[in-house]
């Protein structure tokens, strides 16, 4: 659910200053995942922190209005475990 319309979108002021002071080719590191993407940020590459590392996100026009956290996944899915999954993996490996 977005913020109240009377409050406006949440945008971190320090991120806007970094956008104004840097050139579009550099990566701007961001830890604030709840910051809203604004039109001034289009064309810049941001390193959004996912809890372990910075994921590079190139901002395009369709991202305006969304949060940075939506573009840097925090969980890594490997696979579901169990005996059936192991048997399927063995069968798949033997097939190749």
TrEMBL record:
The protein's UniProt keywords, in alphabetical order, are: Ribonucleoprotein, Ribosomal protein, RNA-binding, rRNA-binding
Q: Which GO terms describe its molecular function?
A: rRNA binding; structural constituent of ribosome
The protein's superkingdom reads Bacteria
One Pfam family linked to the record: Ribosomal_S19
Carries keyword Signal? no
Alphabetical GO CC annotations of the entry are: cytoplasm; small ribosomal subunit
Entry-linked InterPro entries: Ribosomal_uS19 (IPR002222), Ribosomal_uS19_bac-type (IPR005732), Ribosomal_uS19_CS (IPR020934), Ribosomal_uS19_SF (IPR023575)
Among its keywords, does the record have Acetylation? no
Q: Which GO terms describe its biological process?
A: ribosomal small subunit assembly; translation
**Biological role stated in the UniProt entry:** Protein S19 forms a complex with S13 that binds strongly to the 16S ribosomal RNA.
PANTHER family reported in the protein's UniProt record: RIBOSOMAL PROTEIN S19P FAMILY MEMBER, SMALL RIBOSOMAL SUBUNIT PROTEIN US19M
**Similarity annotation:** Belongs to the universal ribosomal protein uS19 family.
Recorded protein name is: Small ribosomal subunit protein uS19
């Amino acid at each position: 659910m977005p913020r109240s319309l009377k409050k406006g979108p949440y945008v971190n002021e320090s991120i806007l200053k970094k956008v104004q002071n840097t050139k579009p080719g550099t990566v701007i590191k961001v830890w604030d995942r709840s910051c809203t993407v604004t039109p001034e940020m289009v064309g810049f590459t941001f390193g959004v922190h996912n809890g372990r590392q910075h994921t590079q996100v190139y901002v395009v026009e369709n991202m305006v209005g969304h949060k940075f956290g939506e573009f840097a996944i925090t969980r890594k899915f490997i696979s579901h475990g169990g005996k059936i999954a192991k048997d399927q993996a063995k069968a798949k490996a033997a097939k190749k």
